[in-house]
Backbone:
């Protein structure tokens, strides 16, 4: 089986790629930095004897998404794990006025999935990465963009995860997706010891001492993503560290 992992050079993405390689999957690693992707690819080849294909993918750029999707679609993948994500500390918009965190975590992750959906083999699976922060964003204020006045690092991240989780639920219910027996699930990695935790503030050293020791390891989060991809269920959220099921709201 052929699996795609976005954000495969990050802490969790690399562990997902390793876990898939250990199970014998052929891999496509979709990365913003092809050089870092090559480094991960060489590591996987050395340890597992599998040579991943490296595809350039910048989820802040819809044209990059379209180019990557066109290339990946030729491979007829079985699994798409949408792992890549950002939590930008400052407000930034693209040429269309869309905020960057929302672009990466929602708009262009959705675009990639929609473009690849026709190419995914029947019986395959799409996994989206959500977060418990989605509960922080009120449903009545849901919008697909955010202004500079409304922007906050965590608030915008929470909105992006609320939106992608709702999209995953709607995709799982789509009759054409069900008709091809394609499963759609989310993985919630929990609070993981990755660079995303850094707030760039004076209290970060204190956080490192008192908080990080209790965070989950990237490998634990990766196992939950694999469970979401391998399960016969569709329309569910798989939670780290134990892979329990949750509703899809």
Residues:
């Amino acid at each position: 089986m052929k699996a795609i992992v976005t954000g495969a050079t990050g802490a969790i993405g690399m562990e997902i790629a390793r876990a898939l390689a250990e199970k014998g999957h052929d891999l496509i690693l979709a990365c913003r930095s092809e050089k870092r992707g090559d480094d991960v690819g060489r590591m996987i080849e050395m340890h597992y004897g599998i040579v991943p294909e490296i595809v350039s993918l910048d989820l802040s750029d819809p044209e990059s998404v379209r180019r990557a999707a066109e290339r990946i679609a030729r491979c007829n993948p079985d699994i798409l794990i949408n792992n890549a994500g950002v939590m930008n500390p400052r407000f930034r918009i693209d040429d269309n006025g869309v905020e960057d965190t929302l672009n990466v975590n929602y708009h262009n992750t959705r675009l990639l999935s929609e473009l690849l959906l026709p190419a995914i083999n029947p019986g395959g699976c799409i996994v989206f990465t959500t977060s418990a922060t989605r509960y922080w964003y009120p449903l009545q204020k849901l919008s697909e963009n955010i202004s500079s006045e409304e922007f906050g690092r965590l608030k915008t991240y929470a909105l992006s995860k609320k939106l992608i989780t709702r999209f995953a639920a709607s995709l799982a219910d789509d009759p054409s997706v069900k008709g091809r027996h394609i499963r759609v699930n989310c993985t919630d990695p929990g609070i993981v010891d990755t660079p995303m935790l850094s707030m760039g503030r004076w209290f970060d050293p204190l956080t490192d001492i008192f908080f990080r020791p209790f965070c989950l390891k990237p490998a634990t989060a990766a196992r939950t993503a694999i469970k979401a991809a391998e399960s016969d269920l569709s329309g569910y959220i798989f939670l780290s560290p134990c892979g329990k099921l949750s509703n899809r709201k």
